[in-house]
Structure formats: C-alpha cells, structure tokens
Design a protein that fits this description.
The complex is a heterodimer.
Chain A lengths: L3 E2 L4 E5 L4 E7 L4 E9 L6 E7 L4 E4 L2 E6 L4 E6 L8 E9 L6 E3 L3 E6 L1
Parallel strand pairs in A: 2-11
Antiparallel strand pairs in A: 1-3, 3-8, 4-5, 4-9, 6-7, 7-8, 9-10, 9-11
Chain B lengths: L3 E4 L2 E4 L5 E7 L5 E8 L3 E10 L2 E4 L6 E3 L9 E3 L8 E8 L8 E2 L3 E5 L1
C-alpha cells in the first residue's frame, strides 16, 4: 500500500516556463516532506524540504507547497531549465527522526528548449 | 568527505550465485539504508539500520541479508541471486537527529542472468 503517490509518471515543459510536480500522501502522521532529484546513472540528491508546520518553502527557483488538509504537496520550478530534466521523487517522514523515508514512484521531468 | 560510497558499480551474476554489495559512509551517520530502484516502481526500501548492531526490514527484504558491525559500513548480501533481483541498488545514510535529509550513494547496477 503506497503511502506517497506521484500520479504523473512524466511531465514535459518548455524552457522558461513553470514546472509543477505533484505528490499526494495518505498518512496524516507524516510531518516532514522532501524532494529528491535523480539524473541517470547517479544517486538521488536532496533538493528541498518542508516541515508540516509550514505551507511553503522556497529555495531559489524551487518552491514546495504543502496543503495538509488535502494531503498534497507540489514542487514548483520557475523558470524551468533544460538542466532540470531528471526524475523527481517525493518523500515523507513520520513523526520521528529515527523513522524511515517513504518515497513516491517518481516523475520524469523533461524541459525542452 | 567521500560521502556515501558503493562498490561495485556494475555486477553480473548467474542465478543462484551469492554476493555482497558494499556500502560505506564517512559522515558518522547513525541511520543507513538500502533501496532498490526498478522502472515504474520508484525507490523501495530493502533493509535499514539505526546504528551498529541494529537492523530492520523494509518493504522488500526477501532474498537479502544485512548486518551493521560498524557505524561506517552497511553491506547488503544476496544469498542466492534470482533474475527478479536485477535492479539498481542505492545505499543511503543520514543523521538520526535534526533534519532527515538522506544522502545517497551512486548506485550498483546488478544483473542476474
């Protein structure tokens, strides 16, 4: 039973436009959320995170929004660049720093010139 | 710091063979884990450890063994390889206090014939 879901396996966006990647979760005990980016033949790398006490966190071109009532978060990339083309994973952590991370299945973002 | 290192990068096994995937980290992280990544399945947790001498199962533990004798090392053993274990394997580590950002190794691509 998947607790973190990324329902769009792929997204294609033109360079300079906004990319919006979505993630839904089912467990209301999750209190910390992360986004990872993965290039081919490399390990995932941390991108941005948000605590459940916030509804927005921004880091340069990347902004994560959290809607707890809807159990939904989204990653906005503005403006999108070809180097952003990668697989993006959403992950969630439950209630404890000892807890495991639960990952979604990923969304392949392609940014075309 | 080398971060999280994994060896080998590539491996081909025959069905029934055994092998150990090596993982080491030099960040003094208490928490280490193993994931496998398969097309369309995202990152699935195999085993994890919250410290030396402590291990636990993740989502897909069958066919794999782990041990944690030191803080630095967390090897993953395939006891009798099967074609279903063909995958890309990632080791990850993080601290158990504070933020839960997890650092990933570069991965091991395993093919079982």
């Amino acid at each position: 039973d998947q607790q973190v879901k990324q329902n769009s396996p792929s997204l294609s966006v033109q360079e300079g436009r906004i990319s919006i990647l979505n993630c839904d979760y089912t467990n209301s005990m999750f209190d910390y959320f992360l986004w990872y980016k993965k290039y081919p033949a490399e390990g995932p790398t941390f991108l941005i995170s948000i605590s459940s006490i916030k509804d927005k966190n921004e880091d340069g071109r990347f902004t994560v929004f959290l809607n707890k009532s809807a159990k939904h978060l989204s990653l906005h990339i503005v403006p999108s660049q070809p180097g952003d083309s990668a697989v993006y994973f959403c992950a969630a952590n439950r209630g404890s720093t000892l807890g495991r991370l639960y990952f979604g299945r990923g969304t392949q973002l392609t940014v075309w010139p | 710091n080398a971060g999280v290192t994994q060896t080998p990068k590539f491996q081909v096994l025959k069905t029934g063979q055994s092998m150990t995937l090596q993982c080491a980290q030099d960040m003094n992280h208490e928490y280490m884990s193993w994931y496998r990544q398969d097309p369309g399945m995202g990152l699935r947790l195999i085993h994890y450890s919250v410290g030396a001498g402590i291990t636990d199962q993740g989502e897909v533990p069958n066919g794999y063994n782990v041990s944690r004798s030191t803080t630095e090392d967390f090897p993953l053993r395939l006891l009798s390889a099967a074609p279903s274990q063909t995958s890309v394997y990632f080791c990850a580590s993080r601290r158990t206090g504070g933020i839960v950002e997890q650092f990933f190794g570069p991965g091991t691509r395993l093919t079982v014939l």
